[in-house]
Task: inverse folding
C-alpha cells in the first residue's frame, strides 16, 4: 500500500491526520455547505449580510415548500424522471445487443464498428446540434420528451457499447462456444447465458447513465421549448430568472435538482464507481 | 407453413448464422447511432459551407464562413479561452492524485470520507454553476465577505474580463478533481504490494517511490483521467451558459458556447456559421479521439 | 429486460399522440407573457372576445418570453397558429422577408387604423404593407428616487449640465448616481439610445441602426464622449456586468443609487420590492443639444397573423377586436402601459400620464436599439456598449470592431 499506512506513522502524525481529515472535507465541501445554509435561512438574512453565520431563523420547510408552491419545480422533477428512465432502459438494452455482437463474434467489421461507437461517444455535442435539431423539427419530435429521449438513448449507446463490449470480452468465452456446439440458438445464448453474467455491468451502466442524463442541460435547451416539458436542470435555470434576488429559494431549488443523482450515488455507490473506473486499473 | 419449405431455409440460416447473427444484434443500436450521431457529423460539416438562418433556403457560399472565422475577434477569444481551459483543467489530474494519496488509508470512516470527497462529481454542472455564481457574488457571496473581512474591495470575478475565465474554470475543476481522485483511488488499490516492498528495500521512499514506482503503475488511471479531462475541457458549455453566457462582452466565451450563441440564441440564427465553429471544435477533438483510438488499437493487438 | 423495439414503437406512438395538432379550434393564439399581471390581462381580452363570438372555439398557448423567442421560428414554419405575438421594427423583418407573416394592410384600411394608429404606423410598415396590430407600448426615461434627491437637495435634472452636477452631488453623498445591470446587455442600449437621440436626433438613430452611418463617424464618437462623462467619474454602480435589470433594482430600492434609465414596465417590480409610488419619480432623459428635437424610445408589442394560419379570417377578426379603443384602454390599464390607439384612454397612474405626455409631444418614437438594428448588429453593438462602460479607454477599438460587423451584416 502507498502511501505508507498511517498506522505505522508516529502517534502525533496519526492524530494530526485524523484531525485534518474532517477539516479538509469541510473546506472541500464549503460551496455545498454554504448553499445549504443559504437554503434554510430567511431571505432577509442575505440582504442583511448574514451569509456565513447562523440563520436568524430556520426555514427549511418554508423555503422548500415555497419552491414547490411558487414554481413548477414538481413538473420539472417529473419531466426529468420521464426523460431519464426511458433513456436508461433504451440505451442499456441497445448496448447489450451491440456489445454482444462486437465481443462474441469474430468478423471483419467488429473492430472498425466498435471504434465507430467509441469515437462517436467523444464528439463535441455542438457538431450534432444543428442537424439533430433540424431532424427533430422535421419529424415532429422537437419539443417532445420522446424526441429528447430518442436522442439521448442514441448518443449514450456509444458509451454503453464501449462499456458492454469490454465487459463481455472478459467473459469466459468457452461457455458460449460449448453452447453453440450443443446447437443452442444465438438468441438463447444471449438471453440465458450472457445476460445473467453481465448483470453487474447493467447495474453500473444504469446508474451512470441515470446521472449523465439527469444532469444534462445542453440538449434540454436545444430540443425542448415549452416550459411544461423542461427537465429540472433547465428548470432551475429558469427559476433563477423568476426568483430574482431570492437566493434562499434559488439555493433550495438547486439542491432539490441535485438530490436524485446524489441519492442514487449513495445507494448504488459500488456499481457507480465500478462503472466510472472501468479500465483505470488495467490497460 | 409446409416443412418442405422451412427445411432448406432453416439450413440456409444455419449455414450463415455465424455471419448474420452479429448484424442482427447490431441493427437497432447501429441504426439509432447512425441517425443521431454519425450522420449529423457529416451534415454539420456540409452546413458549414452554407449560409442558412434556419428558415429560408440554404445558400452555398463555399468557404466564406471559414474566411469570416479567421477575421472574427470573438472566435479568437473563444479559441484562446479553450486553450486556457485545456491547460488549467489538467490541474485536476495531479490534484486528484494528491487527494487520492491523502485518502488512501484505512482509518475508521475513511469510506464515508471518500464518498463525500467524490460527490461534487454527481451534481449537475448547472447547479455547480449556480453555486459558484453565488459564491463569487461581490456583494453577498462568500468571496465578497472574505475580501471585506480583510478590508479589501471584493473583485467582481464574473464581471472582470481578466478573471472571469479562471473563475469558471475553478468551478469546473471542483467536480473534475473528484472524478480524477476516484480513478486514482481505484488505481492505487491495484498497485502491486510486491513492487512497493521491493522499492522499500531499495531505499526508495517518499517522492522517489511515488515517481519511479507508483506513478508508472498508475498509467492506466492517468490515461483515462487525461482523456476525460480533455473532453470535459472542450465540452465546457454548461458552466459558461449558466455563469456568464460568455460575458462580459464575450470575454469568457468558449467555442462550445460561441457556437450555440451564433446558431441558436435570440441574437443570431446563423446555422452555417455555427456549424463552421462546431467543425473547428470537432477537428480539435478529433486529435484526441484519434490518439485514444490508436491507444485502444494497440491494446486490441495484444 | 424489455424488448427494445417494442419499447421504441410504443414511444413513437406516444409521441405521435402528443404532437398531433388540436383539431377543431377556430382560432389559435400564441402569446408570450407569463408574468401574472400580464397573463391575467391577456386572458381577460380573450374572454371578452369569446363573449362577443360565443360560437368560436379559441385555443391559447402562452409561453415564457425568452422561450417564445426561439419557439416562434419553429411554429411559424411547422404548426402556425392564427395569431402570434411579436415585435415590430427590424425584429419582424426576418419573418416578413421569409414570407411567414401575412400582410394585413386591408385590415388597417377597413378598420381605419391608418388614422387611429398613425403615430406607430411607420414601425409596423415594411415593403409598403402593414404586418400587425400593436396592442401596447411604453415610455423609457429616467426613474429616480424622489425622496433621495429631495434629501440631497437635488432637483430632477433637465439638461446635461444639470445631470452631471446632480451626479456629482449624489456621488459626494456616498451614493451611486445611476444603477444599471448590464449582464443581459440591453439595458446599456437604453443609455446609448438616449445619449444618441439627445446628441444627434431621431433621424440619426434610424440611419445608424439601418447601417447607413458607420460607428466610427464623429457623431457617434461624440455620443460616447458624453457617455464617458458619466462613466469615468464612476456615476454608475460597480459590478453592473454581473447584474440583471432586476438585480440592479436592489441598490435603487435601498436608496444607495438614485436614478435608473429604464422602461415603464419596471414600475411593477419597484413597487413590489417595497417602494411607494411617491418615492419614485419619472423624467424624460435630459436635453444635451437644445437644437435637436426631443425623440424617445417607446418599444411596442404587437400581434401578427402567420401566413400558415388556418383561420386567417378569425385571426383578423381578433386583431380588429384588439385594435378597438375599448380593448386598448382595458388591456393597457391592466398592465400599466400605454395604448397605441389614439382614441383609447390612458390609465390614470401618474407614470402613464407623464409617459403619454412625453411620447405624444416627442418629435419621433424609436423602438429600441435591439429592435431597430438587425439581431446580429444589435448583439455586437450591445457587447460593445458593455465593454465601453467597463473600459472607456478602448473606445477606438470597439468602434472599429462594430464597423467590421456592420459591413458584414448590411452586406
Result:
Amino acid at each position: 500500500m502507498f502511501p505508507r499506512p498511517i498506522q505505522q506513522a508516529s502517534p502525533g502524525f496519526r492524530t494530526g491526520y485524523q484531525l485534518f481529515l474532517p477539516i479538509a472535507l469541510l473546506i472541500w465541501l464549503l460551496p455545498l455547505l454554504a448553499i445549504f445554509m443559504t437554503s434554510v435561512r430567511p431571505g432577509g438574512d442575505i440582504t442583511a449580510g448574514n451569509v456565513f453565520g447562523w440563520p436568524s431563523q430556520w426555514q427549511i420547510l418554508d423555503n422548500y415548500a415555497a419552491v414547490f408552491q411558487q414554481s413548477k419545480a414538481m413538473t420539472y422533477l417529473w419531466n426529468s424522471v420521464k426523460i431519464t428512465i426511458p433513456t436508461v432502459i433504451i440505451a442499456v438494452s441497445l448496448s447489450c445487443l451491440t456489445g454482444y455482437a462486437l465481443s462474441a463474434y469474430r468478423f471483419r467489421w467488429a473492430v472498425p464498428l466498435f471504434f465507430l461507437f467509441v469515437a462517436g461517444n467523444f464528439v463535441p455535442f455542438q457538431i450534432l446540434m444543428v442537424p439533430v435539431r433540424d431532424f427533430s423539427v422535421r419529424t415532429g419530435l422537437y419539443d417532445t420528451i420522446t424526441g429528447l429521449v430518442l436522442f439521448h438513448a442514441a448518443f449514450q449507446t456509444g458509451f454503453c457499447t464501449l462499456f458492454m463490449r469490454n465487459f463481455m470480452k472478459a467473459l469466459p468465452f468457452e461457455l458460449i462456444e460449448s453452447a453453440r456446439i450443443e446447437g443452442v440458438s444465438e438468441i438463447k445464448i444471449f438471453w440465458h447465458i450472457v445476460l445473467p453474467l453481465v448483470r453487474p455491468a447493467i447495474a453500473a451502466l444504469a446508474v451512470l447513465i441515470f446521472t449523465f442524463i439527469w444532469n444534462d442541460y445542453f440538449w434540454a435547451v436545444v430540443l425542448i421549448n415549452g416550459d411544461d416539458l423542461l427537465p429540472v436542470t433547465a428548470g432551475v435555470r429558469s427559476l433563477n430568472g423568476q426568483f430574482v434576488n431570492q437566493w434562499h429559494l434559488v439555493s433550495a431549488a438547486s439542491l432539490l435538482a441535485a438530490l436524485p443523482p446524489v441519492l442514487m450515488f449513495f445507494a448504488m455507490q459500488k456499481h457507480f464507481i465500478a462503472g466510472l473506473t472501468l479500465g483505470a486499473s488495467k490497460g | 407453413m409446409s416443412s418442405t419449405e422451412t427445411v432448406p431455409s432453416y439450413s440456409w440460416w444455419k449455414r450463415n448464422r455465424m455471419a448474420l447473427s452479429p448484424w442482427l444484434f447490431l441493427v437497432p443500436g447501429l441504426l439509432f447511432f447512425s441517425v443521431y450521431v454519425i450522420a449529423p457529423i457529416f451534415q454539420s460539416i456540409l452546413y458549414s459551407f452554407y449560409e442558412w438562418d434556419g428558415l429560408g433556403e440554404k445558400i452555398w457560399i463555399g468557404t466564406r464562413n471559414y474566411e469570416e472565422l479567421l477575421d472574427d475577434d470573438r472566435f479568437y477569444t473563444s479559441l484562446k479561452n479553450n486553450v486556457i481551459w485545456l491547460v488549467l483543467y489538467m490541474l485536476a489530474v495531479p490534484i486528484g492524485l494528491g487527494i487520492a494519496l491523502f485518502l488512501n488509508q484505512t482509518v475508521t470512516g475513511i469510506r464515508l470520507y471518500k464518498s463525500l470527497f467524490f460527490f461534487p462529481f454527481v451534481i449537475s454542472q448547472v447547479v455547480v454553476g449556480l453555486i459558484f455564481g453565488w459564491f463569487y457574488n461581490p456583494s453577498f457571496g462568500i468571496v465578497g465577505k472574505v475580501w471585506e473581512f480583510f478590508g479589501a474591495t471584493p473583485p467582481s470575478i464574473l464581471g472582470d474580463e481578466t478573471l472571469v475565465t479562471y473563475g469558471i474554470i475553478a468551478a469546473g475543476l471542483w467536480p473534475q478533481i473528484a472524478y480524477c481522485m476516484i480513478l486514482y483511488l481505484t488505481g492505487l488499490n491495484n498497485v502491486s504490494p510486491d513492487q512497493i516492498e521491493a522499492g522499500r528495500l531499495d531505499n526508495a521512499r517518499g517522492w522517489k517511490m511515488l515517481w519511479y514506482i507508483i506513478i508508472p503503475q498508475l498509467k492506466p488511471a492517468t490515461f483515462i483521467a487525461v482523456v476525460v479531462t480533455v473532453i470535459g475541457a472542450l465540452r465546457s458549455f454548461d458552466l459558461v451558459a449558466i455563469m456568464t453566457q460568455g460575458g462580459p462582452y464575450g470575454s469568457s466565451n468558449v467555442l462550445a458556447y460561441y457556437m450555440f450563441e451564433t446558431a441558436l440564441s435570440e441574437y443570431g440564427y446563423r446555422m452555417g456559421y455555427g456549424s463552421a465553429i462546431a467543425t473547428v471544435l470537432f477537428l480539435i477533438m478529433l486529435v484526441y479521439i484519434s490518439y485514444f483510438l490508436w491507444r485502444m488499437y494497440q491494446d486490441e493487438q495484444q | 429486460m424489455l424488448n427494445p423495439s417494442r419499447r421504441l414503437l410504443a414511444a413513437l406512438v406516444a409521441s405521435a399522440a402528443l404532437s398531433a395538432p388540436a383539431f377543431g379550434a377556430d382560432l389559435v393564439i400564441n402569446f408570450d407573457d407569463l408574468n401574472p399581471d400580464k397573463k391575467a390581462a391577456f386572458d381577460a381580452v380573450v374572454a371578452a372576445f369569446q363573449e362577443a363570438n360565443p360560437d368560436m372555439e379559441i385555443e391559447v398557448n402562452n409561453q415564457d418570453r425568452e422561450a417564445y423567442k426561439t419557439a416562434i421560428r419553429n411554429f411559424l414554419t411547422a404548426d402556425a397558429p392564427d395569431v402570434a405575438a411579436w415585435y415590430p421594427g427590424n425584429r419582424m423583418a426576418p419573418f416578413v422577408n421569409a414570407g411567414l407573416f401575412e400582410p394585413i394592410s386591408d385590415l388597417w384600411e377597413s378598420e381605419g387604423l391608418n388614422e387611429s394608429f398613425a403615430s406607430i404606423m411607420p414601425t409596423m410598415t415594411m415593403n409598403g404593407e402593414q404586418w400587425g396590430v400593436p396592442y401596447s407600448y411604453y415610455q423609457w426615461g429616467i426613474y429616480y428616487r424622489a425622496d433621495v434627491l429631495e434629501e440631497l437637495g437635488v432637483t430632477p435634472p433637465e439638461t446635461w449640465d444639470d445631470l452631471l452636477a446632480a451626479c456629482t452631488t449624489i456621488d459626494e453623498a456616498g451614493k451611486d448616481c445611476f444603477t444599471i445591470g448590464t449582464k443581459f446587455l440591453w439595458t446599456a442600449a437604453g443609455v446609448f439610445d438616449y445619449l444618441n437621440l439627445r446628441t444627434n436626433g431621431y433621424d440619426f438613430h434610424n440611419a445608424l441602426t439601418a447601417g447607413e452611418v458607420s460607428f466610427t463617424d464623429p457623431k457617434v464618437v461624440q455620443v460616447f464622449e458624453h457617455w464617458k462623462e458619466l462613466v469615468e467619474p464612476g456615476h454608475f454602480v460597480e459590478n453592473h456586468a454581473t447584474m440583471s435589470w432586476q438585480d440592479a433594482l436592489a441598490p435603487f430600492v435601498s436608496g444607495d443609487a438614485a436614478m435608473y434609465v429604464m422602461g415603464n414596465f419596471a414600475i411593477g417590480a419597484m413597487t413590489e420590492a417595497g417602494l411607494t409610488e411617491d418615492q419614485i419619480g419619472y423624467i424624460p432623459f435630459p436635453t444635451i443639444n437644445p437644437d435637436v428635437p426631443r425623440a424617445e424610445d417607446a418599444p411596442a408589442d404587437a400581434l401578427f397573423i402567420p401566413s400558415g394560419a388556418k383561420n386567417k379570417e378569425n385571426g383578423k377578426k381578433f386583431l380588429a377586436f384588439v385594435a378597438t379603443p375599448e380593448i386598448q384602454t382595458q388591456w393597457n390599464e391592466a398592465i400599466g402601459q400605454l395604448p397605441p390607439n389614439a382614441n383609447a384612454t390612458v390609465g390614470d397612474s401618474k407614470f402613464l400620464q407623464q409617459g403619454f405626455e412625453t411620447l405624444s409631444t416627442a418629435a419621433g418614437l424609436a423602438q429600441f436599439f435591439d429592435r431597430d438594428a438587425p439581431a446580429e448588429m444589435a448583439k455586437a453593438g450591445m457587447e460593445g456598449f458593455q465593454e465601453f462602460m467597463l473600459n472607456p479607454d478602448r473606445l477606438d477599438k470597439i468602434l472599429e470592431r462594430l464597423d467590421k460587423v456592420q459591413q458584414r451584416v448590411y452586406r
User: Anything to note?
Assistant: Strands of chain B lie at 50-51, 59-60.
